[in-house]
Amino acid sequence: MHEMSLCESVLQVLENEAKRQHFSQVKAVWLEIGAMSGVEIEAMRFCFDVIVRNTLADGATLEIIEIPAQAWCLDCAQTVAIQQRYDACPHCGSYQLQVTQGDEMRIKELEVT
Length: 113
Ligand SMILES: [Zn+2]
Hints:
It contains two helices and six strands, in the order αβαβββββ. By secondary structure, the chain is an alpha+beta fold.
């Protein structure tokens, strides 16, 4: 389950930020998860609760923002919604698509005390 190691890296970021910004507790974390990132949201929630136990983020709320997958179609010259990588353009059927969002995972915001 790679969500476990993802949560560990999230915690690492939180600890680094705590040192840098001098806060001692994290109350909430907003995490953006792309539709194609392969991250399972339920697994992420479960792992997060386990990983942050007895850390500066113990009891913190995990808010997940799902980012839809989008690509730029070279033939249509516009942004189109896709379900997964290597999908055809839903408008013209072209495979000349460049994924522009949906495969990322990042921390968007923190609430700290
Ligand atoms: Zn197209």
